[in-house]
Amino acid sequence: MRINRVERIRALIKNAAIPPVSSRFKVFIVDECHLLQGETWATILNSLENLSQHVVFVTVTPHLDKLPRSVVTHSQKYHFPKIKDADIAVKLKNICIEEGIDFDQVALDFIAAKSNGSLRDAEMMLDQMSLLGKRITMSLAYELVRVVSDDELLDLLDLVLSSDTSNTVIRARELMRSRIDPIQIVS
User: What is the CATH number of the domain that holds 105?
Assistant: First the structure.
């Protein structure tokens, strides 16, 4: 259930008051909870005191500093480490195999490295590429992530070293027009 309004929170809390049927706890996961508004948090906090011990709210956020102080003081905090690139690449490979998606392993490794330890981000990148109905390749990954390939950088460097100012500027502009961040070219 997506909750972003006070009415939805109240409905969720009403549902939470009903004891679980097949398990010891009723668990509600509120992802990206830092996006909830003050009134929504007030409703949650006021209701938590009246709910039984069978209810567990798990709030997920990368921005603990954006939560109301009263929420943070009433919460247990768990900090999860980022997932290793190799583990993300294995998961992406399994997804590709299960979904019948053609892939190059090096492209999956690249996606894993660019996801910054977030499996969700890596899966979203893979999903975007798979929607094109093509093999998941490095060139496709470069295009999605807007990274300049090593070959393109070497071509640009050759132009720079050849003192061909006109073609160097033209090529650099082409790269930037293709939505590549100029900082990527410099770094």
Answer: 1.10.8.60
Which CATH number covers residue 14?
A: 3.40.50.300
Collect the ranges in the chain with pLDDT lower than 50.
1
In this predicted structure, what is the pLDDT of residue 20?
84
pLDDT tens digits for 65-92? 888 888 888 888 888 889 999 999 999 9
CA 81 – CA 35 distance, rounded (Å): 22
CA distance 143 to 157: 20
Give the domain range for residue 164.
150-185
| SS3 label, residue 7 | helix
pLDDT at 31: 83
**pLDDT value of position 171:** 78
Burial label, 25 (beta-carbon count in 10 A; 0-12, 13-18, 19+)? exposed
CA–CA distances in Å: residue 26 to residues 18, 29, 40, 80: 9, 10, 20, 22
- Give pLDDT, residue 187: 54
The amino acid sitting at 116 is N
Please enumerate in sequence order all residues whose Cβ is within 8 A of that of 176, keeping only pairs 6 or more positions apart, or say none: 182, 185
The burial class, CB within 10 Å (0-12 / 13-18 / 19+), for 111 is buried
Describe the crossing of helices 119-130 and 138-145 by its angle, rounded to 10 degrees: 110
